[in-house]
Amino acid sequence: MLEKINQVNDIKNLKPEEYSLLANEIRCFLLEHISKNGGHLGSNLGAVELTMALHLALDLPKDKIVFDVGHQSYTHKILTGRKEGFKNLRQFGGGSGFPRPNEDETDVVIGGHSSTSISSALGLAMAREIKGTDETIVAVIGDGALSGGMAYEALNNVGRLKKNFIIILNDNNMSISENVGNMSRYLNQLRVRHSYQELKGNVKKAIMSIPKIGPDITEKVKRYKNGIKQMVIPGMWFEEMGLTYIGPIDGHNIELMKETILSAKEIDGPILIHVITKKGCGYLPAERYPERFHGVSPFELETGKAKKKKEKADYTDVFANRLVKLGKTHENLVAVCAAMPSGTGLNRFQAEYPERFFDVGIAEEHAVTFSAGLATAGMKPVVAVYSTFLQRAYDQIIHDICIQKLPVVLAVDRSGIVGADGETHQGIFDTSYLTSIPNMTVMAPKNRYELSQMLDFAIDYDGPIALKYPRGTAYTGLKEYQAPIVLGKSEEIAIGDGSVAIFAVGSMVEEAVKSVELLKEEGMIASLINVRFVSPIDEECIIKQAKAHRLIVTMEETVEQGSFGQKMATLLMKEGIQREFLNFAIKDEFVPHGASPILKQQLGLDGASMAKEIAKRKNAMR
Predict the structure, then answer these.
(1) What is the number of helices (H) and of strands (E) in the chain?
(2) 25 included as an active-site residue
(3) H-helix segments, 80-148
(4) Taking a C-beta distance cutoff of 8 angstroms, is the pair 131, 348 a contact?
């Protein structure tokens, strides 16, 4: 069947009896390639039939599908002729694991972060109304994404639409009672019929036309009808927001979903189709352990076990284990995450102190303000969150934490270049957006040992503080350098011959060590300073080293705008210190997907590239 799918709408050439064959082949295809390259598995296996039904019922690319997050878009990519892209999926120069408009015109908007689909799709629908076109707009959103506040903000505006607009709620976290399922199926069929819609409209008009009492009767009938529906229809909450609710229906029944979508296209106004799917469907390990198989590295297809065992602890492990130990001595310590207990390592804290652990769902803004409330009441909250997702809570960090100087710890995981998930997930903006906020202290550890030290310091610190650390194996070099953490003070690791001083931030200390060794071969003995604090910066150390060296170099895994290097350059300018200055950071660009070592090399942020550039600049100074 897959040989027949080479471009968009090829699926429509298949016979209905061939649909299940194609679904099975797609699952085998996904398992084969994801087991080799890694990627998002469970969500894609669960959305195979749903995506097929959408492609059968819609006319792409005229009609528009907006996938929330985009974790489940792999089948969509296959059905639009992108099978070849799976050979190097999520690798540098290969296909993206998320919808990308620059990759295919059927990828309507970029996908990566949660709870955005309804807003984007509603914008498309409103534009359709203004232009007078007739394309069908569909937003596909998962039940998990509905914990994000932005989804409710969008739903609050959807009821204003008078023309067709479809939301598909892909629910993979509940089961349907057979009785409720049968009743819902009957009601769904009834409510999407033209005759029913026309009758309902005519009856309402007739009653409203009765002099004086018409509107009152209409309201009473509506309340009575809603009371009856509450007993048999589980989606009345959506009805109250102005949507017609259909469901729940079996998300693995292609024909049923196809017919439901076709019928929904004929209804004026917004409609929500509640679809039940099984995450990891068709692959037993993923069905049993859906969270483990959400995003996976290469694994053995027969067993589901990772091909490459983790030999050393990563930064998340170090953070999680230390936090558990601190929980024993700090009874007011609480941990908060936003739907990522395993990803952030907080599942270990949860196991030890369940009453002091809070998973608030995909709601980073709430996580931050909720933690502010905890801090106000004397708790010591630690909010563990990926750098890219913390961006969503920028206002809350300012308004609810920093203005009040509340002692909340932000454990910023995946800071820096993350890799295969690409532009939407690179954690390269945290230095800029965190250090721009008054009262916010920001630290970055050079290795695993310093991460533990800094976490201890953060827990005892009386004020807003962020601890940012990268993804991947924790660096074990420079173990002998474990000077006490002092607020706003850097660490001098090595003092050279006065030719060049390197200030490295966090994860870039490891690359800086490589640069220092390579520069020795060029006859330069570089000084190396571990920045430690990117806010507040160590002005005393910076001025001292600037006066003692001819070339000042900064290295950091962040965007140049708002970087530590810019702050240092501003300080030197204010002090009237003129020195050759070289700032290694990410220029004004988004970083694509690919393995982190390859991306660093492409960006000139690996040890060898930086050493070469330093030597070049130093030679030009002679």
Answers:
(1) 24, 19
(2) no
(3) 117-131
(4) no
The answer to whether the CB of 184 falls within 8 A of the CB of 250 is no
CA distance 335 to 349: 7
Q: What is the pLDDT of residues 118-167, one digit of tens each?
A: 999 999 999 999 999 999 999 999 888 888 889 989 998 998 888 999 99
Provide the pLDDT for residue 123.
94
> Cα separation of 388 and 408, whole Å?
19
From 191, 356, 364, 532, the catalytic residue: 364
CB atoms within 10 A of CB 588: 7
The encoded tokens of residue 53 equal 């039904």
Could you confirm whether 600 is annotated as catalytic?
no
Whether the CB-CB separation of 138 and 108 falls below 8 Å is answered with no
Tell me the residue type at 452: S
Residues ≥6 apart with Cβ < 8 Å to 192: 246, 260, 263, 264, 266, 267
The C-alpha angle 265, 268, 269, rounded to 5 degrees, equals 105
At 386, which amino acid appears? Y
Catalytic-role residue among 185, 258, 279, 414: 279
Catalytic residue flag (residue 300): no
Which DSSP letter does residue 110 get? -
Rounded Cα–Cα distance for residues 475 and 464 (Å): 26
Q: By C-alpha distance, which of 531, 521, 520 is closest to 488?
A: 531
Distances (CA, A) of 82 to 33, 102, 206, 563: 13, 13, 53, 38
Distance from C-alpha of 343 to C-alpha of 521, rounded to nearest angstrom: 41
Structure letter (DSSP) for residue 280: T
pTM (2 d.p.): 0.85
Q: Which of 83, 392, 532, 600 is catalytic?
A: 392
